[in-house]
Specification:
The chain is α/β, with parallel strands linked by helices. It is built from 17 helices and 14 strands. Bound molecules: nicotinamide-adenine-dinucleotide (NAD).
Length: 445
């Protein structure tokens, strides 16, 4: 089938390449010419495991093309995927300008039936706005061409996006039109062979499902972070508590890790957007508000621990950071906890020496050259002349470090583990003070 994808970011590229991989002809459109030039020269603008290889093979097979030519995009695909950003507006609600711009582009150029498939995360009611935008643009042209708007929210996780798309937990198709549902069922059939995971529902419920899922996941994280702070205060070990509660199948072990807060392009903005939707309808979403408030506080926790350890004297200190991306296996720095930590450290007069396996270019792009940020080539180099080490992102390569070497390299032998990935006994045995989340600090043996 012929498929067009508007937006060649995390979601658009993964959607496009996975649909190409199963045999469709995919044209990916973006308004950013630099991105399209890079893709057309064999590069990939983001780090996502497996993505580059898959794009390469599908380009070579002639099933995947990239262009800034929106008109060609509209002419190409029966399916017009919308995978553009929906960043937060000033009040936290989702900014729909990019989604509606694509809708108008499609209305402007379509001359036969098209299915607009909304993959961007958008508030309930957006499909109606997209349809209205297409109709208005068509009316201005004096034409009326049939189309449908489907809500098909994306649930991929950055870092495991290809696998998530290829083997989805669910495929949600929101449409009131049974014929459109069947066309999408056919498009998704290769990803739906093992058992039927495609769920059709009304458009509004489909739009809402995405926010509900992200709000639930963010709630789990903030809930555990709240408990971790209480555990620390009462002298309990949150990691033992985690294992204790996870054994109850009604709770489960998944996604209940305490840490230094959630970031990324989805949870923060989606929780805020849902909050705004509720408020706009006169409902005060107390729990959602608390989820974000707890996360906001949690992102400052590592700084507070570091500041407390050094008696609030951080000016001139050098803090080594391992991990900058908002989570492992991505270079995405949007709302990353590392950013809050670095900015607080800089405001307190400290310097940062940081290493991340893939997110250093992105960090450089965001912060530019500044004297209080040094990005280094490997994890151990971050420790040169540093007072303390902080782990912010749980990359696997940080999970089994040489504690003795860390102890020898640091001026004040203290290690802050913002993701509870290390064994505090081993750190303490090597002479390090080990400070983590929701556990009493381990002092050197
Ligand atoms: N990143 C994720 O993990 C993830 C997961 C599920 C859902 N989502 C949702 O998917 C949507 C896209 O997210 P993303 O992370 O891929 O964003 P992104 O910022 O990585 O990519 C968006 C792309 O759209 C392009 N764009 C903007 N306007 C355009 C237009 N008129 N025509 C063509 N291209 C245009 C931008 O240049 C950019 O390259 C958002 O709504 C997001 O909430 C993201």
């Amino acid at each position: 089938m012929d498929v067009t994808v508007f937006g060649s970011g995390y979601v658009g590229l993964v959607t496009g390449v996975c649909l190409a991989e199963v045999g469709n002809n995919v044209l990916c459109i973006d308004i950013d010419p630099k991105k399209i030039d890079l893709l057309n020269s064999g590069g990939v603008p983001i780090h996502e495991p497996g993505l580059e290889e898959l794009i390469k093979s599908n380009r070579e097979a002639g099933r995947m093309h990239f262009s800034t030519d929106a008109e060609a995009g509209v002419k190409h695909g029966l399916f017009q995927f919308i995978a553009v950003g929906t960043p937060p507006d000033e009040d936290g609600s989702a900014d729909l300008q990019y989604v509606l711009a694509v809708a108008r582009t499609i209305g402007q150029h379509m001359d036969s039936y098209r299915i607009l498939v909304d993959k961007s995360t958008v508030p309930v009611g957006t499909a109606d706005k997209v349809a209205a935008a297409v109709r208005e643009t068509q009316a201005a042209r004096g034409v009326s061409v049939e189309f449908d708007v489907v809500s098909n929210p994306e649930f991929l996780k950055e870092g495991a996006a290809i696998d998530d798309f290829m083997r989805p937990d669910r495929i949600i198709v929101g449409t009131d039109n049974p014929r459109t549902a069947e066309l999408l069922r056919a498009l998704y059939a290769p990803f739906n062979r093992n058992r039927d995971r495609l769920m059709t529902m009304d458009v509004r419920s489909a739009e809402f499902t995405k926010y509900a899922a992200n709000a639930m996941l963010a709630t789990k994280i903030s809930f555990m972070n709240e408990l971790s702070n209480i555990a620390e205060a009462v002298g309990a070990d949150i990691e033992r508590v985690r294992i204790g509660i996870g054994s109850d199948p009604r709770i489960g072990y998944q996604f209940i890790y305490p840490g230094c807060g959630y970031g990324g392009s989805c949870f923060p903005k989606d929780v805020r957007a849902l909050e705004q939707t509720a408020r706009g309808l006169g409902y005060e979403p107390q729990l959602l508000h608390a989820v974000e408030a707890v996360n906001f506080r949690q992102k400052a926790l590592l700084f507070n621990k570091i500041s407390h350890y050094f008696n609030r004297e951080l000016a001139g200190r050098v803090i080594a950071i391992w991990g900058l991306a908002f989570k492992p296996n991505t270079d995405d720095m949007r709302e990353a906890s590392s950013r809050v930590l670095m900015e607080l450290l800089w405001a307190a007069g400290a310097k940062v020496q940081a290493f991340d396996p893939v997110a250093m270019d992105e960090t450089q792009r965001i912060y530019g050259d500044r004297p209080d940020l040094q990005l280094v080539d490997d994890a151990m180099s971050a420790l040169d002349g540093a007072d303390a080490l902080v782990i912010v992102t749980e990359w696997s390569q940080f999970r089994s470090p040489n504690f003795a070497a860390i102890k020898n390299a640091l001026k004040a032998p203290v290690l802050f583990d913002g993701r509870n990935i290390l064994d505090g006994h081993l750190a303490a045995a090597a002479g390090l003070t080990y400070i983590s989340i929701g556990r009493v600090p381990r002092l050197p043996d």
